[in-house]
Amino acid sequence: MARFLPEDYANQELSLTIELTHPAMAEVFYTPPADELEMLNVVEEDESHYKIHVATFHAQYDCISVYPIITLFHHPQYLEPKYNKVREIVVPVEDANIPDSSDEVEEKLRALPSGFVKDIRYGLGLTKEFRFIIDAYSGAIQPPIPELSGHLFRFKPDTISGIN
Q: Which has the closest alpha carbon to 71: 132, 159, 5, 161?
């Protein structure tokens, strides 16, 4: 994947928290780096407000839900949803087992099909080449590929293979 972020982003340690919400389900939260929080004038007590839900691993259903947010610090909508109408994208995967560490989360996200942003530093979601799917839904044109329900975008296993 091409990198358009500042060079120090690539080496920056991700601050991820994994919370088991069920024996077969875990939610992953991202907290921005301390230097970014400092620039936002966040005091230590307020840091929990910046803990952002970015993914859920559903081991029982073999899928990962990603929650697209903007994680590029200088973007005007920093830490806000990336898309107007889509808040969650559910992707069937072969290995949705509960990750034990940040490294394992990153490894499992790299296994998402092509067409997906797989690096939290970019904000999870669809790549620009597939943004038309989100745009079609946002414009109330129902695309034939995913199931749509409110702010949820669910790809079916047979349609994922078509975008690889």
A: 5
- The Cα 2–Cα 86 span in angstroms is 25
Q: Give me the DSSP letters along 74-128.
A: TSTTTTSBSSSS--EEEEE-S--PPPSSHHHHHHHHHTSPTTEE--GGG-SEE-G
- The 3-state DSSP class for residue 129 equals helix
| Domain ranges (residues) in the chain | 7-163
CA distances from 18 to 25, 45, 46, 67, 117 (A): 10, 20, 20, 15, 20
Q: CB under 8 Å to 110, separation ≥6 — which residues?
A: 118
| Number of Cβ within a 10 Å radius of residue 155 | 21
d(CA 48, CA 51): 5
Mean of pLDDT values over 135-145: 58
Residue 162 has pLDDT above 50, yes or no: no
Global pTM exceeds 0.85: no
